[in-house]
Amino acid sequence: MGGMVVLLAGDFRQTLPVIQKGTPADEIKACLKSSILWNKVTKFSLTTNMRVHLYNDINAGNYSDTLLKIGDRRMLRAVLN
């Protein structure tokens, strides 16, 4: 049978749905990654920061690395230790 190609892009840590009068747990339960369909999704990740690669913009690389550390809570652990 045929399938459907859907392109989803973004940082899923920053794209939780808005549930009016909902709790944070309600938002987590409503997000795409909590869906039973999530296991059927083929996931691809970008591995090269093209702004750094093409323009040799080291500051952009440092900024994106810092954002990822904050998102993964690695920055918080470094500050607390």
Automatic annotation (TrEMBL):
Signal sequence region:
none
What EC identifiers does the entry list? Answer: 5.6.2.3
What's a GO biological-process term for it?
Answer: DNA repair
Top EC class, one word = isomerase
The alphabetized UniProt keywords are: ATP-binding, DNA damage, DNA recombination, DNA repair, Helicase, Hydrolase, Nucleotide-binding
Q: Does the keyword Transcription apply?
A: no
Q: Does the keyword field hold DNA damage?
A: yes
Domain DNA helicase Pif1-like DEAD-box helicase: residue ranges: 2-74
Q: Cite the GO molecular-function annotations of the record.
A: 5'-3' DNA helicase activity; ATP binding; hydrolase activity
Q: Which reaction is recorded as catalysed by this protein? A: ATP + H2O = ADP + phosphate + H(+)
Entry cofactors: Mg(2+)
In the record, the note on similarity to other proteins reads: Belongs to the helicase family.
Supply the name of the protein: ATP-dependent DNA helicase
